[in-house]
Amino acid sequence: xxxxxxxxxxxxxxxxxxxxxxxxxxxxxxxxxxxxxxxxxxxxxxxxxxxxxxxxxxxxxxxxxxxxxxxxxxxxxxxxxxxxxxxxxxxxxxxxxxxxxxxxxxxxxxxxxxxxxxx
Amino acid sequence: xxxxxxxxxxxxxxxxxxxxxxxxxxxxxxxxxxxxxxxxxxxxxxxxxxxxxxxxxxxxxxxxxxxxxxxxxxxxxxxxxxxxxxxxxxxxxxxxxxxxxxxxxxxxxxxxx
Lengths: 119, 113
Description:
The structure holds 2 protein chains of 2 kinds. Chain A is mainly beta. Chain A has strands at residues 5-7, 10-13, 19-24, 31-37, 43-50, 53-56, 65-68, 75-79, 88-95, 109-110, 114-118. In chain A, strands 2, 4, 5, 6, 9, 10 and 11 form a 7-stranded mixed sheet that branches. The N and C termini of chain A lie far apart (36 Å). Chain B is mainly beta. Chain B contains no helices and 11 strands. At the A-B interface, strand 4, strand 5 and strand 10 of A face strand 5 and strand 10 of B.
């Protein structure tokens, strides 16, 4: 019963390169969320996706960042032309689509994160 | 907009009790979550409140007052392994918002022997 999986766990890029971060949600979860955490700070929402749809990207920078969640395969967060300020931990979370489920009220389960370092 | 405030850091002694306060001002509200995050790890779910009152779960309890925009997380019988950051998060409402969470900056709790 695997949890949310993210890879790679650590990613080093030079300025100007592209970074691709992958997230596989928990089994049965079709809602995916990406958050960014700068050192010593809280998590900041970036984007919320369902299969093949971006629902809310209000937290995503307008340039260089994009996200997708295709019908098959993991969700991808893509950062083009990375800059030093992109260095952070990027967490993916997933939740079940059925709000009526009993239990922790549709909590989000977090993956282990990808730590991006831009040199 | 969303604004969530919690203290940056707290220190307590092993075996003691610590209360972490969280105040929020949000345009929408559909529940408040507390997560624990150890350094370098993923946040893990601790508690959820959507109605006013106290929710107890073993050594951890969480309280919510919607009228005051206030919550607290109470950690009892502190153990060294409780040293971590504790994140307060508010879930927005509305279908478009889905389960989007807005997090406070986190409170780093240091438990001393």
